[in-house]
Amino acid sequence: MSALDTARTFWGENLPDWVAALARACDETSQNKVAVKMERSAALVSNVLRNRYSADTSIVEDIVRGHFMRAVVDCPALGEIGKQVCRKWRGKAAQFENVNSLSVSMYRACNRCPIHKGADDDAA
């Protein structure tokens, strides 16, 4: 059974487009390779495909949309970037790290950005 068939079985008619994209990516390579690209575990990928992931899926959705669906956001500091890149910078912006000038710039930009502040979660 393909990953897409598995997702269709467990999600039914409510299969989100991003879960279908995740399943197609698994079918093209492997679940483990997809998990590595997402910087997540294969178990997480499996649970999402089987509609058993009980935590908030918004992070996983952003990663899938960025990596496999080529979704982008308009970053005030970097221009057009993938959703997964935006999510990663927003995570780093929670705590200030003076490791290099880009980190400092992104900390400032992310903390002023409406996406980071939750004003436009659909755009993130």
Which features would summarize this protein structure in a list?
6% strand; two-stranded antiparallel sheet; 124 residues; disordered C terminus; 2 strands; mainly alpha; 2 domains
Structure description:
By secondary structure, this protein is mostly helical. The protein folds into two domains: 3-68, no CATH class; 72-123, no CATH class. 56% of the residues lie in helices and 6% in strands. The chain is built from seven helices and two strands. The protein has helices at 3-11, 17-28, 31-38, 42-49, 58-68, 83-92, 101-112; strands at 72-75, 79-82. The protein has a two-stranded antiparallel sheet with strand order 1-2. A hairpin with a 3-residue loop joins strand 1 (72-75) and strand 2 (79-82). The radius of gyration is 16 Å and the shape is elongated. It starts with a helix and ends in a 12-residue tail after the last helix.
Give the SSE map.
Blueprint: H1 3-11, H2 17-28, H3 31-38, H4 42-49, H5 58-68, E1 72-75, E2 79-82, H6 83-92, H7 101-112
Antiparallel strand pairs: 1-2
Helix pairs in contact: 1-2, 2-3, 2-5, 3-4, 5-6
